[in-house]
Amino acid sequence: MLKKYSVTLLVLLNMLFATGCSRQNNNLKQVKKNDTVRVTYQLKSGRRSLGTKNVQLKKGTKVDTGLKKAWPTKEHKGMITEINGHKQNDKKQKYWMYTINGKKASKGVKQQNVKDKNKIVFTLQKVSE
Q1: 23 and 43: one domain?
Q2: Which domain range does residue 7 map to?
Q3: I need a labelling partner for 99 at 20 to 30 A (CA). Which of 8, 42, 53, 92 fits?
Q4: Please, where are the H alpha helices in the chain?
Q5: Is residue 104 scored above 60 in pLDDT?
Q6: What region holds the Transcobalamin-like C-terminal domain (predicted)?
Q7: pLDDT by residue (tens digit) across 44-66?
Q8: What is the total count of domains within the chain?
Q9: Residue 31 pLDDT grade (very low, low, confident, very high; cuts 50, 70, 90)
């Protein structure tokens, strides 16, 4: 009789333990999902589109990190000089500029954080003085 109660008690404890562990794993998955943002990056040369990519990043990520995840880039003294083989041209005064959700960026790519559903457009354009 005592053996039956012991076996029953062990089975119940195992079920409770297994249930508790599975709930914890679901909470961890939800936390990880909430720690990411989805950002759309687009490259343009003037008005011509050179490509678009959707990138999943961690919250608090900077614009340049997502850009580098989407395409190969080159920099010089903290400035983006080439994206995916498209180079700026100092003689023609064409440089990489970027906007976030249609608004001119107020910070550099290494200072600006991305937010969920941002649309970031890098345009190789002529800059007049």
Answers
A1: no
A2: 1-34
A3: 92
A4: 2-34, 63-70
A5: yes
A6: 60-126
A7: 999 999 999 999 999 999 999 99
A8: 2
A9: very low
Q: How many CB atoms lie within 10 A of CB 43?
A: 22
Average pLDDT, the chain: 86
Segment 99-119 mean pLDDT: 96
Same domain for 66 and 113?
A: yes
Q: Are residues 9 and 72 in the same domain?
A: no
Report d(CA 58, CA 49) in Å as an integer. 26
* Distance in angstroms (rounded) separating the CA atoms of residues 82 and 66: 15
Check residues 1 and 71 and name the one with the higher pLDDT.
71
Q: Map tokens 């941002």 to a residue.
A: 118
CA–CA dist 10, 78 (Å, integer): 63
CATH number of the domain that residue 109 is part of: 2.170.130.30
Residue 74 corresponds to which tokens in the numbers above?
């080159």
DSSP code of residue 55? E
Using the predicted structure, report yes or no on whether residue 97 has a pLDDT greater than 70: yes
